[in-house]
Design brief:
The longest helix is centred in the first third of the chain and has 26 residues. It is globular, with a radius of gyration of 15 Å. With 138 residues, the chain is an all-alpha fold. It has 6 helices and no strands. The chain is 75% helix and 0% strand. Helix 2 packs parallel to helix 4. The protein has one domain.
Length: 138
């Protein structure tokens, strides 16, 4: 309940969702209730994967609203994938640097590329599933 109150009081998460998802969603309007509802539905089946990513990047799951932070990370990672796979010559260098920093966060302490790839796929899948759930609520 306290996280929902934070949604209404603080626009930072919602603004970040808007910035992150702007290229992914058709509409520019995002309802914080729908974001929260979609996240809650996603956590029913993917809570272990959220914890796995949080552990991998060193974010404590004891923090208040840690799930929103991991969701934001996954959505940003999804943006990175879109940028990497895009054929455009003009790429924002700040985004490239941000993506490489996120890759570093995921890769720290891993023994091989299989572990890194698994986490990348997990983050990408969480972002895609969230977008599907969010679209269904419209």
């Amino acid at each position: 309940m306290q996280c929902i109150a934070l949604y209404s009081q603080s626009l930072s998460f919602e603004d970040t969702i808007k910035d992150t998802m702007q290229a992914k969603l058709v509409t520019d309007e995002y309802d914080s209730f729908k974001v929260r509802y979609s996240l809650d539905r996603l956590l029913i089946n993917r809570s272990n994967e959220f914890r796995e990513i949080a552990h991998a990047i060193g974010y404590p799951v004891t923090q208040q609203c840690w799930e929103e932070f991991i969701l934001r990370f996954c959505l940003e990672f999804d943006d990175c994938f879109k940028m990497w796979s895009d054929k455009e010559d003009h790429v924002n260098h700040n985004k490239v640097h941000k993506c490489m920093t996120m890759m570093r966060q995921i890769a720290v302490g891993k023994q091989n590329m299989t572990e890194v790839t698994k986490l990348q796929n997990t983050a990408y899948r969480i972002a895609e599933d969230f977008k599907i759930l969010y679209h269904r609520l419209k």
